[in-house]
């Protein structure tokens, strides 16, 4: 008998249990673009609670006192707020502080995209720093959003800006659809691993493989579980790097009613997380 077999199985079991524990900790929540046909904030909160979502990603114009009150009442968190800014600290919006005041104490992530892919590095970095400093005043963390055609476009360029900004309340996200729109899918695992120490948010959706990277959202943004891109690769890599943070569902232009698409995605989410 091989005396090393029990210890080997013990290690494998420990790894499996660790992965299960990490998965169980990940909050799952949609972008508010998945709720465009649900006009009432009361009905939005009720639907997300009914389907089992942990929260929502809102944005400054939509984050009204009425929305906050309804979501608080139904126990649905404001997980993130999507903020897009021009790479110019002199054009920093004066009303952003009021928005951050609204979010204070909620654990909400400020999900920041910097527009204009051709902008100079220095004003982009200064805008990021200014956002982080204001967010810190209200106990908020900032997460950079890699978005095609933005100054924060590829993960690599976004991570570079993050390092230059040098703020301790600043991290980065990995967004599947924007990654596939800009990079070969074969680089997915190494890209996630490269930002793992600073990874604060992950965005997923179903997707089809496309011949070459481009912003083909009809193929790259589907309900979770649909399409021929193997999303298990993403979850496996997140398990391997020990990521237990929030996961956002991208719903941009998915041509289905909110309840139908969100229910499909939640069912797929549960299946992915039941698998060893």
UniProtKB/TrEMBL annotation:
Segment forming the signal sequence: 1-24
Keywords: Signal
Domain of life: Bacteria
InterPro entries listed in its UniProt record: IolE/XylAMocC-like, Xyl_isomerase-like_sf, Xyl_isomerase-like_TIM-brl
Pfam families per the UniProt record, alphabetical: AP_endonuc_2
Protein name listed in UniProt: Xylose isomerase-like TIM barrel domain-containing protein
Domain Xylose isomerase-like TIM barrel: 102-271
């Amino acid at each position: 008998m091989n005396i090393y077999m029990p210890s080997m199985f013990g290690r494998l079991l420990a790894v499996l249990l660790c992965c299960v524990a990490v998965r169980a900790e990940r909050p799952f929540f949609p972008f508010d673009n998945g709720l465009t046909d649900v006009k009432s904030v009361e009905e939005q909160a009720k639907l997300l609670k009914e389907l089992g979502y942990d929260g929502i990603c809102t944005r400054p114009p939509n984050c009204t006192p009425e929305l906050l009150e309804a979501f608080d009442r139904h126990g649905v968190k404001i997980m993130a707020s999507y903020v897009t800014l021009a790479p110019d600290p002199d054009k920093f919006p004066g009303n952003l502080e009021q928005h951050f005041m609204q979010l204070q104490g909620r654990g909400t992530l400020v999900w920041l995209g910097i527009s204009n892919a051709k902008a100079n590095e220095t004003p982009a970095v200064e805008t990021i720093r200014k956002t982080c400093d204001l967010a810190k005043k209200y106990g908020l963390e900032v997460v950079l959003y890699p978005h095609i055609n933005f100054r924060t476009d590829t993960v690599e360029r976004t991570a570079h800006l993050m390092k230059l900004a040098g703020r301790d309340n600043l991290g980065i996200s990995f967004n599947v659809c924007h990654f596939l729109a800009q990079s070969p899918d074969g680089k997915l695992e190494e890209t996630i691993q490269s930002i793992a120490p600073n990874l604060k948010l992950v965005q997923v959706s179903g997707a089809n493989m496309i011949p070459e990277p481009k912003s083909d959202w009809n193929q790259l943004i589907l309900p979770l579980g649909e399409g021929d891109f193997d999303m298990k690769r993403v979850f496996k890599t997140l398990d391997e790097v020990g990521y237990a943070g929030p996961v956002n569902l991208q719903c941009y232009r998915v041509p289905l009613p909110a309840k139908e698409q969100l229910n499909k995605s939640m069912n797929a989410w549960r299946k992915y997380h039941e698998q060893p």
